[in-house]
Every structure is written in C-alpha cells, then in structure tokens.
Design goal:
two-stranded antiparallel sheet; 12 helices; about 15% strand
Length: about 375
C-alpha cells in the first residue's frame, strides 16, 4: 500500500512539474517541450443535476482510482454554462431534491456525504481536486448552456443566438470557469463549446464568436489550451481549409472533432471500401489541420461504441477508426466514463451503454474495448523534444 501511494505521489509531482501544456506544430507538449499524448475519458456533468455523474453509485475516490487504473491520463469534464451564471449557489442536495432524485440523495449520503452541502460549482472543484491528486489532467468542456442532455438541432443549445445560447452569457461563463481554475495546474485546457449545430449555424458567426471566446479564455487564464470545435455536431472543420483563424494566440490552440459509427448508415459500414471513404472524409474535414506550415493539434474529443451490444456497423467503425488513430497518433477522448445518469430525458438512473463502467459503476463494461484503448495509449510517434 505504501509503495502504491508513493507511485501516485511521484506521478502527481511529475505531472505538476510538466504543466502547463502548450502546442508545437501538430503536437501537444509539456513545459519542457516533450510530447504529451492525451488519452482521455469523458465524464458528464452537464445534465439536469449539474453534477458529475455516478457519485451516488461509488465513492469519488473509487471512481478516480478506476479512471487512473484504466490508463486514462485526462478527463474531459463537461459542464453547463448556467451552472456558473445562474445556479452557482445551488447546493448539490437541493439540485437532486428538486429533480425528485430520492435514491440519488440516499446513495450520495452513504458514499459521498461531504459533497451534499456543497454548491454545484464547489462539487465540481472537489471532483477536479480528486483527479489532480491522482495525477489526472482535466479538460473543462462547455457542453451546453441549459443543463440537459445533448444534442439536438432544436434543443435551444446549438448555436449562438439560440434560445439558451446567449453569446454574452456564454462569454461570462467562460470567464468564470477560466478564472476559477487559474491556480489549478491540473486543469490544462478548456473548450469553447461542444457540437455547434442547428438551423442557425453559419461560418460568419462561427469565426466571430470563436475568436471572442478564445481571446476571453486566453486573457483570463493564458496557461490553458483552448479547444475549438467545428460545425454540424463537430463533424466538420473543413471550412478552415483556405480560411484559417487569425487569433494571434501563440501555442495554445487545439482543434477538436467528433466521430461515431452512427454518423454513417449501417449500409455504409457494410460496403467493402467503407473505411477508406470514412478516413478520407475525416482527413478532408479535419485531418488536414495537422499538416503544412500552420499545422495544429487535432484532438478527437469524442468517439465511442455501444459497449453493451456491439452491432456489425460499430465493429467496422471501431476497427477502422482505432486503426486510423494509431496510424495518425491523434490525441483522443472516449465517450464515456459513466455507466449511468442520475436522470436523462426524465428517466431516473438511465443506463449509458457507451460507458466504460457498468450501470453500477463497479466493473469494466467491455474489457475487450478497454484493451484496445490501452494498446492505443502506448502509441507515440513523435516526442518533439
């Protein structure tokens, strides 16, 4: 036990000494110029309860231990803008009680009692501090404004000017988050916004608000990496080919992209040349950003499969995309950690079959998939040092 604690302490000291992170060409690097490959897992905290999921199922320390033991070196921790701008003083107990989540209240009282009387924003900090103590880095992801499941074209959270997506309030939320964690080295980056989408989306407003958001974060916390997503559910950054951003922010910009099997039809994945077509489209829509004199890191912040029942289309996607990630050595984040949600779409204890953990958060859902991810973690084509 003492040896294990010593290993964790050495890991924590090593991580802290290497931070903050920056970029060099297409790579993310540490303070000494050495390559840092981000192998992340998504931990949702943006839904109705405004609380990282699973804290009624297992102790916080146990969940963090599981993340580290699976081999992940970072967590993409999602949050809702309104948690900061409208609900910052709401206590965890009141949030759960207001949603009628009696079983979650009982579970948290038994397992994580000390979090119940914290505000939702302080509970988020407690989770981040626990991850930091384990040497796990954190990417804060602005997933939505109104706390709810994401995503839909008409959910009011999709694009600047939508019902719940006031640009000024969004900028205020970025300011609060960036400032709040200014002295927390484990928070190494922030995203501007998850999966921009919907009928209002357009290139002109994308450039306008992305530039404002990136400058806001960089001004408030210049140590942070700034993650920039594209359009159409973050499937497309192709419009940057020939019209790059002009931010004048040195060595901090990272582009993010998402991919799932369901982005294409089952029929598509049954075709003989499906993988070649898929990776070709990926390169023209995003992969090109890692090339040329203006090369930048490309971070696949979401991909995943149904780990409870893997259909042929998902097997084809899994094999194709993991192979592509190995070949290109991109940074990545799998969706998701959580095996369940406190509440999703009105259903209590909603199971997440894409989760690395089972619905009780007590076991690995799909050891074979984790094994494939662990192989991917070991691939590092360039150290840059």
């Amino acid at each position: 036990m003492k040896t294990l604690l010593l290993v964790h302490l050495v890991l924590l000291i090593s991580v802290c000494k290497s931070l903050p992170l920056s970029t060099r060409s297409r790579w993310i690097v540490d303070e000494h110029g050495g390559r840092v490959k981000l192998a992340c897992v998504n931990w949702a905290g943006h839904l109705d309860a405004m609380l990282p999921e699973g804290l009624e199922k297992q102790r916080l320390t146990h969940i963090v231990d599981e993340i580290a033991s699976m081999g992940f070196n970072c967590v993409r921790l999602t949050y809702a803008t309104y948690m900061y701008t409208r609900h910052a003083n709401v206590k965890v107990a009141d949030s759960l009680r207001g949603l009628g989540l009696k079983d979650a209240l009982v579970g948290m009282y038994q397992l994580n009692r000390g979090l119940l009387q914290l505000s939702v924003v302080d509970a988020q900090r407690a989770v981040i501090d626990a991850l930091a103590r384990k040497g796990v880095m954190v990417i804060l992801d602005n997933h939505v404004s109104q706390p709810q499941w994401c995503c839909g074209n008409t959910d009011g959270n999709g694009f600047f000017g939508d019902k719940y997506f006031d640009p000024n309030e969004w900028l205020s939320g970025l300011h609060i988050a960036a400032t709040r964690y200014k002295d927390t080295p484990a928070v190494v980056g922030m995203s501007l916004r998850n999966e921009l989408r919907g009928p209002r989306q357009n290139d002109k407003d994308w450039y306008k608000y992305v530039e404002q958001g990136a400058r806001r974060i960089n001004t408030d916390n210049p140590k942070l990496l700034i993650l920039i997503s594209g359009l159409n559910y973050d499937l497309n950054l192709g419009f940057l080919n020939g019209h790059p951003l002009n931010l004048n922010i040195q060595n901090k910009i990272v582009y993010e992209i998402h991919r799932y099997a369901f982005d294409k039809s089952s029929k598509f994945w049954s075709e003989r040349d499906a993988c070649g077509k898929f990776t070709g489209e990926f390169h023209s829509g995003a992969g090109f950003l890692t090339e040329g004199k203006n090369a930048a890191p490309l971070f696949v912040t979401e991909f995943g499969i149904n780990q409870a029942k893997t259909e042929p289309s998902e097997i084809a996607f899994r094999d194709c995309f993991l192979g592509y990630l190995a070949q290109t050595d991109l940074d990545w984040g799998v969706w998701a950690l959580q095996g369940s949600y406190y509440i999703k779409d009105g259903v209590h204890v909603f199971e997440e079959t894409y989760g690395m953990l089972d619905s009780n958060w007590g076991a690995i859902r799909n050891p074979d998939f984790l094994g494939r991810l662990r192989t991917l973690m070991k691939i590092k084509l360039n150290s840059t040092k």
